Amino acid sequence: MLSRMAANQEQIKYGTRRRNAAGEEEVYLLGAWAPRDVADQYLAREEYERRVHGPRGAQKRAKIVSKSALGAGGELSREQQAWSDRARAVIRRAGHRRGGARDVLIELFAREDCALTAQEIDKRLRAWLQNGVVERPVGIASVYRGVEVLQDLRLIARVDVGDGVARYERAPLEQNEHHHHHFVCDQCGLLVPFDDDALEDAINALESRFGFVAKEHEVVLRGTCLECS
């Protein structure tokens, strides 16, 4: 399990190693510290992908080749397309080259309604490869780098629900745009998004009451889902 990122860890490089307070070795991956055994599995996959597909610069870029293979999720809604277009424009203005992995990640996040862990992102992209949505694999290191770029540009937001695992979801197009919150099952880890206009109105009322302008907020309700109760 990944440990929660401290405020001063934003500048830590991918793959940095340390020992925690218990003396256990950890590796920094995708904005959080992972136990060595978990990290070594990902780093071994990265090395395997490098040997099979060649150095990063020599690899053909991953790209979406068959949206029809996604079935009903192949076409983006107007809101999803707007976020996708904005993400590509922001990346271009930031001076980044149009990368295959980043483009595939944009397509993935545009279609997701809730936050994903690094493992879930990797699992979905491998399923896309198997189903013919993409023609080449997206290496795990490319996933890490792509997510970090999207987060740095505030195109996706990190979601912390108190279990120490980093999750990511697309950020609202506008700062004041309505966004969802989360139910979390303490038994199975199920994450369920929800939105509620009355809750947002109550938060706005609290801002007025205390003379405070909140730049962002996240409501997490913990408990037990129906399957686990």
Topology:
Layout: E1 17-19, E2 25-29, E3 32-35, H1 36-53, H2 78-93, H3 100-111, E4 116-117, H4 118-130, H5 140-152, E5 156-159, E6 167-170, E7 181-185, E8 191-194, H6 197-210, E9 220-223
Parallel strand pairs: 7-9
Antiparallel strand pairs: 1-2, 2-3, 4-6, 5-6, 7-8
Helix pairs in contact: 2-3
Uncertain regions: pLDDT < 50 for 5+ in a row? 1-10, 56-60
Shape: globular
How would you state the average pLDDT, rounded? Answer: 77
Strand portion: 15-25%
Number of helices: 6
Strand order of the largest sheet: 1-2-3
CATH class group of the largest domain? Mainly Alpha
Share in helix? 25-40%
The CATH topology name of the largest domain reads: Arc Repressor Mutant, subunit A
Largest sheet: 3 strands, antiparallel
Q: How many β-strand runs?
A: 9
Measure the end-to-end span: 24 Å
N to C succession of SSEs: EEEHHHEHHEEEEHE
The assigned CATH architecture of the largest domain is Orthogonal Bundle
The fourth-level CATH homologous superfamily of the largest domain is Winged helix-like DNA-binding domain superfamily/Winged helix DNA-binding domain
Helix-and-strand structural type: alpha+beta
> What is the count of structural domains?
2
Q: In angstroms, what is the radius of gyration?
A: 19 Å
